[in-house]
Amino acid sequence: MRFRLTPRETSFYDMFAASADNIVTGSRLLMELLGADASGRAEIAERMRAAEHAGDDATHAIFHQLNSSFITPFDREDIYKLASLLDDIMDFMEEAVDLVVLYNVEELPKGVEQQIEVLARAAELTAEAMPNLRTMENLTEYWIEVNRLENQADQIHRKLLAHLFNGKYDAIEVLKLKQIVDVLEEAADAFEHVANTVETIAVKES
């Protein structure tokens, strides 16, 4: 057992948890998007934009705390990286919703709902995992499951691309829809990057 002679700044744990909770909010807005009409999508995009701004505020709060703390709970570089990666997830989700509205997409291709379901599950797991950074316990199943979900997201993404290029859509529509499903795939990748970073932190702290 390791003993620490200096106190550590513990507010980071609460801020990481708040950032992850905000990502859950974003994933729920993505789910709402699936069943919304054009006017409803515009309203969801506004709420997603507000959530993304809240995510930025949470990230900046972590950076500010990092710059003003002499002692940190784990490596400064890892704190910065984890905060940045959590912010990336929110950015990708907001971008996807914004593109749906900006491109006036009438109907999302079949399979997008599966992408969003994977993101929603990854968001829940990430939010559940963040408080466990305090003890570095009960995290192994988290990063294993998020990696499994990312593999599932890859398969869904490939099937979506095959569907988009099957000749059903015109070229412009393919470009629009492909950009949306690509951004959702980037969000899935970002969840995996967060999980991998948590694993690295846990190994260092063990």
Automatic annotation (TrEMBL):
One Pfam match: PhoU_div
Signal peptide span: none
Similarity field: Belongs to the UPF0111 family.
Protein name: Phosphate transport regulator
Annotated source species: Streptomyces lacrimifluminis
